[in-house]
Write a structure and sequence with these properties.
Blueprint (H helix, E strand, L loop, with lengths): L1 H6 L4 H20 L3 H22 L11 H6 L4 H38 L1 H16 L6 H8 L3 H25 L3 H9 L4 H12 L1 H26 L4 H10 L3 H29 L1
Helix pairs in contact: 5-6, 5-8, 5-11, 5-12, 5-13, 6-8, 7-8, 8-11, 9-10, 11-12, 11-13, 12-13
Length: 276
Amino acid sequence: MAMASAGTGGDPNAQLDRAGAVSSRRLAASLGLDGAALFGLSTVVAVLLLVELLVRTGVVSSLIIARPSEAIGAVFESETLAKLWQATRITFSMVLAAMLAEVAIAVPVGYLLYRYKDFGKAYEGWLAALFAAPIFLLYPLFMVIFGRNNFTLAFMGFVAGIIPIIVHVRLAFMSVPPTLIKVGKSFHVSEKTIFWKIMVPAGAKTIFTGIRLGLIYTLINIIAIEYLVDAGGLGRMVSDSYFRFDITGTYTAIVAVTLVSVVFNIILNRLEKLVR
C-alpha cells in the first residue's frame, strides 16, 4: 500500500500544495513578474481588500477613506476619465522633462567630480547638505522669478531631484574596480569607450539607485507644489477634490499619482537591465 501511495504521488495535500506553487509560478511568468514582485502585488491587493472591508462595515468612516472599489472604479467613468487623463498627462510630462534634464546634467557632473578628486572632496559636503535641505520651501521664490506655470513646477522638481543623482553617479564611478579600467586601457580603447562600455555598466546599479531617488524627490515636489498653488495636473486635481469634500475623487487622483510612479519605475527597471 505504501508503494502504491508513493507511486500515485503520496499525500493529496502535498499534491495540492505543489499544484498551487506551479500555478503561482505560471501566473507570475505570464504577467512578467518574479516571485518578489508577485508577493508585493498580493500584499497590496490584501491591504485594499482589508480597507474595503473596514469601510463597508463602518469601522472606518467613508468620510475619511473612500472605498478602494469606488476610488478605482471612478477612474473608468467617462467624465472622470477625461479630467484624469488630462491631469495625468500634464504631471507625467513635467516629471519626464525634469528627469531627462536631471540625468543629462547629473551624469557628466558626477563623472567630473569623480575624475577630479579635489573637486569631488571639495563639493561632497555641499552636495550632502543640499540633499538634506528642504529645497521645496524655495517654491515662492521660483514663483516670483518664473511665474505660476508648468515650467516652474518642472524646475522645482529638477532642483530637488538632481542632487541625489549627482551624489550616486560619483559613488558609482568610485566603486568601479580599477582592474576593469586597466583591462580596457590594455586593449588601447578610447576614454569614451571605457566610459560607456566599462564604467557605466559596472556602476549602473548605483547610478539607477540615484535616479530612483531623484524620481521620488521630483515627483513629490511637483505633486506637492501643484497641490499648494492650485496649478498643474494631478496635485491640482487632488486639491480641487479635497476642498470640494469629494473623498472618492481625492483618492482617485491619488491612485493616478501611484500609477505614474509605477510606470516610471517600470521604465527605469527596463533601462537598468539594458544598461547592465
